[in-house]
Design brief:
The protein is α/β, with parallel strands linked by helices. It is 12% helix and 25% strand.
């Protein structure tokens, strides 16, 4: 079972029934509640409402029962969101800080231009996960995917880490699609399972995780497992490959100076 979103039955915060509610009305209500000092919010019956959690800062905790719409946690700046089901496209678009946990699947462009924080998806994700992810200063974005991903994983990735665990992926099949790391010029992608050369963008190299990589991965996977209810699952270092950018300027020769 997933860990509880709220600390105790006596500290559940405000519950909002989103059934039939326009996305603007829902987001205004969430902001009213958090502005009043109630930092824990539960949204029931989410029906595709967009922009939930946009720009919210540290200390805010939102649990969503249902399916939130596009751009969940966009520009979020420290809040935490747990989705008790699936999420649509654009989760954590340009997120600065915080944490998003999805206990189901998520759609396309998850983590688009993400600048910090962590996204944990228990299931699988769609196309272009992690496109334009970047790290700067103390900000370091992390995406962990329990299942598999569609094509163009880590496209134009400039920083941070993506991990694909390949759980529940059919035996003998790769957990990722084609064109992984196309245009990648920073960060790292760790994939557990089969990856063929034809699936990779020409900008990435492949190697086995180092001791330092594995120490980092072990801690990350433990946190992911605790957040998604997979505690006790064991992983071996030999199951993973690491993708890294061959150059910090893969398209430098295309420009005139």
């Amino acid at each position: 079972m997933c860990p509880p979103v709220f600390l105790s039955s006596g500290d559940r915060g405000m519950t909002i029934d989103a059934q039939g509610m326009h996305y603007r009305q829902l987001n205004e209500r969430i902001r009213e509640v958090t502005a009043s000092g109630d930092m824990k919010v539960r949204v029931n019956n989410a029906e595709g409402q967009r922009y939930i959690g946009t720009g919210l800062g540290a200390g805010v905790s939102i649990a969503i029962d249902g399916v939130p719409g596009n751009d969940l946690a966009a520009f979020m700046d420290g809040a935490e969101i747990r989705v008790l089901g699936n999420a649509q496209d654009g989760v954590a678009n340009t997120m600065n800080a915080g944490k998003v946990v999805v206990v189901g699947d998520a759609g396309d462009i998850l983590g688009h231009s993400m600048r910090g924080g962590r996204i944990y998806v228990k299931g699988s994700v769609g196309y272009r996960c992690g496109i334009h992810m970047k790290a700067y200063g103390s900000r370091f974005p992390v995406v962990v995917i329990g299942g598999g991903s569609g094509p163009y994983l880590g496209e134009y990735m400039a920083g941070g880490v993506i991990v694909v665990l390949g759980l529940n992926v059919e035996a003998g099949r790769s957990p990722v699609g084609e064109w992984v790391g196309t245009g990648m010029h920073g960060g790292a992608i760790y994939i557990r399972g089969k990856v063929e050369a034809f699936q990779l963008g020409r900008e990435v190299g492949v190697e086995k995780p180092t001791d330092e990589d594995w120490a980092f991965l072990t801690g990350l996977i433990e946190e992911f497992s605790a957040e998604t209810g997979l505690a006790g699952r064991k992983f071996a270092r030999e199951e993973f490959v690491k993708l890294y950018p061959k150059s910090a300027r893969p398209y430098g020769t295309l420009y005139a100076y």
